[in-house]
Write a structure and sequence with these properties.
The chain is α+β, with helices and mostly antiparallel strands and about 200 residues long. It folds into 2 domains: about 5-55, Arc Repressor Mutant, subunit A; about 65-200, no CATH class. Helix content is about 50%, strand content about 15%. It has 11 helices and 8 strands. It has helices spanning about 5-15, 25-30, 35-40, 65-75, 80-90, 125, 145-155, 155-160, 160-175, 180-190, 190-200; strands at about 20-25, 45-50, 55, 80, 100, 115-120, 130-135, 140-145. The strands form 3 sheets. Strands 1-3-2 form a 3-stranded antiparallel beta sheet, sandwiched between helices. It has a 3-stranded mixed beta sheet with strand order 4-5-6. Strand 2 and strand 3 form a beta hairpin. Helix 10 (about 180-190) runs antiparallel to helix 11. The protein starts with a helix and ends with a helix.
Length: about 200
């Protein structure tokens, strides 16, 4: 059954009020039928952002569509490592995957868009240093800069020591954190011995 023009217009209005991006289940909760979503897709008005997330194609363009999709699909996730560095403007690397921290017991995310790599964080290493940022249709959780630097040293075998050192030097040069911040997170992440010589060289 083809959706009516009224149903299509209502759905577009709901998407615009939400910032242009909505999960399928939220759309259904707001009175949008699945056939209306598919109708808008067939008309070229909606585009899927991976499984279960839709984007209104003429909504204000966002450079963070991948992060929005992750925030909507994995509300427990915290953007970390090179993805967090990219968010904070502290790396020249272009992450091929969105790096997220997830607590124990959360299943490994499986999605075609965006490609995601999850890292297990627990205790204070998971909860400390989380910032929340408002994006169109979603709230993004991301670690602050000093916490991200400490995380990069902890996972240096995955992201590269050069990436961690670049973030440390640039963040310090731009005064994006204090030495106390770095030491606190280094202790929480249990990399204080690893980071010590690099922090002492800054001081």
């Amino acid at each position: 059954m083809t959706p009516t023009p009224k149903a299509l217009a209502h759905a577009e209005r709901v998407f615009r009020q939400a910032g242009g991006i909505i999960r399928t289940r939220d759309a259904l909760h707001r009175g949008i039928h699945r056939r209306t979503l598919y109708g808008l897709r067939d008309l070229g008005r909606l585009s899927p952002l991976g499984r279960g997330v839709w984007y209104l194609v003429d909504a204000p363009a966002s450079e963070h569509l991948d992060l929005i999709a992750v925030a909507l699909r994995y509300p427990q996730a915290v953007v970390c490592l090179t993805s967090a560095l990219s968010w904070h403007g502290l790396t020249t690397q272009l992450p091929a995957q969105v790096h997220i921290a997830v607590p124990p017991g959360v299943h490994q995310p499986r999605t075609s868009f965006p490609p995601v790599r999850a890292f297990r964080f627990s205790g204070r290493a998971y909860t400390a240093g989380v910032e929340t940022h408002a994006l169109p249709g979603a709230k993004l959780r991301v670690y602050d800069i000093a916490k991200t630097v400490a995380d990069c040293f902890k996972f240096r075998n995955h992201v590269g020591l050069d990436v961690a050192l670049e973030a440390l030097r640039e963040g310090w040069r731009e005064r994006r954190f204090t030495m106390d911040d770095l030491w606190r997170y280094a202790t929480i992440c249990r990399v204080d011995r690893v980071m010590r010589p690099y922090l002492e060289s800054l001081a």
